[in-house]
Design a protein that fits this description.
The structure is a single chain. The chain is mostly beta strands. The chain folds into two domains: about 110 residues, Roll (Thiol Ester Dehydrase, Chain A); about 140 residues, Thiol Ester Dehydrase, Chain A (Roll). Helices cover about 15% and strands about 35% of the residues. It has four helices and ten strands, in the order αββββββαααββββ. A hairpin with a 5-residue loop joins strand 3 and strand 4. The termini are far apart. It comes from Cerrena zonata.
Length: about 250
């Protein structure tokens, strides 16, 4: 979403700060963190897209509290004929931003809610992963050049104690864990994947994703709930996880 059609490094501020949103103040990109992310696959996405594909965006929710402002956007990936292939919802938390100065929420659309994660039983699957010290440097190649993930001084100023990993990098680890455990490592098995980012991960931290089967999902999928724990801090890094997966049993060979 940040890279667009560019083949080179882009300027992060220019990507996310293209003017003010009516009724809201100008938001500081250095004090903006990823809050939630979800993706719904509507049709198989071709490896070669051709010309005319677009990512259509609209703001679907705004909320304000004493800590800042949360913006939620809906992105729809369409081909040259306008046929939708995927729908993404993403929200950003803008630390310290003030609009009305009062607590409020306005919403016109959003990601589907998941079933509660069971508290009375152990997870059905547990997957462990290890990030690397250069993880944030590598993930920048996706097109997200937010200085928060490369410049320690920006991380210090934002209250994170230095560089933190991109939320979507942690998101990728969690998605791979769910797909490995439930979907037989088949990318086409994953139909929906949504999370809330609850605490930061630093490059080099170890992760543990706990997954519960919570019932049937739409269109013959299985719904799972999950959390990803940062084993270095002991805190939940990803919470409110929900995925719809075509369940594929692992081969016993």
């Amino acid at each position: 979403m940040l890279k667009g059609a560019d083949q080179d490094v882009n300027v992060f501020k220019g990507r996310i700060n293209k003017g003010t949103i009516p009724g809201l103040p100008r938001l500081d990109p250095n004090r903006t963190v990823h809050a939630t992310q979800s993706i719904q696959i509507l049709r198989p996405i071709p490896a070669v897209s051709g010309q005319g594909w677009k990512l259509k965006r609209r703001i679907v929710a705004v909320s304000e509290n004493k800590s800042g402002i949360v913006l939620e956007s809906e992105h729809t990936l369409v081909d040259s004929n306008g046929t939708p292939y995927a729908k993404l919802y993403t929200s950003s938390f803008n630390l310290g931003a003030k609009g009305t100065g009062e607590k409020f929420t306005k919403r016109i659309a959003g990601a589907p809610p998941g079933k509660p994660i069971p508290t009375d039983r152990k997870p059905d699957w547990v997957v462990n992963d290890q990030t690397t010290p250069e993880q944030a440097v590598l993930y920048r190649l996706s097109g997200d050049y937010n200085g928060l993930h490369i410049d320690p001084s920006i991380g210090e100023a934002a209250g994170f104690g230095g560089v933190i990993l991109h939320g979507l990098s942690t998101y990728g680890f969690a998605a791979r864990a769910v797909l490995s455990a439930v979907g037989g490592n088949d990318p086409s098995a994953l139909k929906y994947f949504g999370v809330r980012f609850t605490s930061p991960v630093k490059p080099g931290d170890a992760l543990e994703t706990s997954i519960w089967e919570v019932g049937p999902g739409p269109d013959g999928t299985t719904e799972v709930g999950f959390v990803t724990k940062n084993l270095k801090t002991g805190k939940i890094a990803i919470g409110n996880g929900v995925a719809y997966v075509k369940k594929i049993e692992k081969s016993k060979l």
